[in-house]
Amino acid sequence: MNEELKQVDKVTDFLINPDLWVKIGSICIKILLIIVVSRVLVTLSRAAINRIFRNREGGKLQIDQRRLETLRVLVNNVSRWVLFFLTVLLVLDQLGFDLRPVLVSAGVLGLAIGFGAQSLVRDIITGFFIIFEDQFAVGDAVTINAFSGTVMEIGLRITKLKSGTGEVHIIPNGTITQVTNFSLQNTVALVDVAVAYEENLDRVQEIIAEVAKKVKEENENIVSDPQVLGVQSLGPAEVVIRVTAECKPNTHYGVARQLRASIKSEFTARGIEVPYPRMIAMPNAKERA
């Protein structure tokens, strides 16, 4: 009975100890402050990330809106979970837990993952910077390493490229070392027109200039007046005249085809002769005699 009373007295003394409650209150206040500060940091980080991605919407290259939204949510989730992990560690530290085993385990796990998945980590990091820096976007005509085509999809790990003949190239982002983007700046449609030596070059150039001006009025992809540069070369049976037209990005192929077709039609209507191989019959021996 006396032992039981002594135990009750010890428990009572422990519970009414003011130092204990001061310590518990201090720990609770610190934990509450940690939680409040972490919530504030989460809110600030989310606002900052959203602001950054809104600014990317006005960039020179427009990324697909769904992909932009996916990346924004991804970064927000990563930042939130990092802050959550740090908050848990700080709370455990206030509760008296030894964090060294936890940190050592996390370090060993991260090191193992780093060594075992180096290529995967490299692909993800490279993919993030490709999207964030607007190096290229979905729909751009690009050459990546040795592959040329139109970008079908940009992911954090791979990029899909569709060639002009329909093949789909799947390229790990970590292997991308060189990119040429044909969709950033205006391009130039270059057309060489061959005419016979017998034609009047001044008249031919005037006709080409008229046709080029008409094509510009019909085709909105031409951004400035086409230029007839003059004689480009002299061939065995033809004189080559060059005409150029500045176009919107990656539209020069279609503009060049339209220019060629329009010039050919106008040459036929105006009677301008297009050179072609000719055979001259040589007299036989009797005729020469």
UniProtKB/TrEMBL annotation:
Record bears the keyword Transmembrane helix: yes
Pfam families: MS_channel_1st (PF21088), MS_channel_2nd (PF00924), MS_channel_3rd (PF21082)
Membrane topology annotation: Multi-pass membrane protein
Domain Mechanosensitive ion channel MscS: 120-183
TM region positions: 20-49, 70-90, 102-121
Residues annotated as domain Mechanosensitive ion channel MscS C-terminal: 191-273
Similarity remark: Belongs to the MscS (TC 1.A.23) family.
Protein name, entry field: Mechanosensitive ion channel family protein
Species per Swiss-Prot/TrEMBL record: Brevibacillus fluminis
Lineage: Bacteria, Bacillati, Bacillota, Bacilli, Bacillales
